[in-house]
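tool_call: predict_structure(chain=1)
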Amino acid sequence: MEDRRYDILRKQNGQSLIWLEDASDLETAESRVKELLSFWPGEYQVFDLQTKQMVLNLGAAPVRTNSQ
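tool_result:
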């Protein structure tokens, strides 16, 4: 069985991605992203290092309100 790894990244300024950490499996990566969302809202992506593809996209960019 191959050892798969997943990178957890956070989208910054709607453009660039910042690497935060890696996880040994997708379930752990998803759990960690949900934990991060609880105190650091934003958009997070998880990449499968074997396939080099995004496998999970959670959260959203902060919503701006127009206060008048």
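agent: DSSP finds one helix and four strands in the chain. Proceeding to next step.
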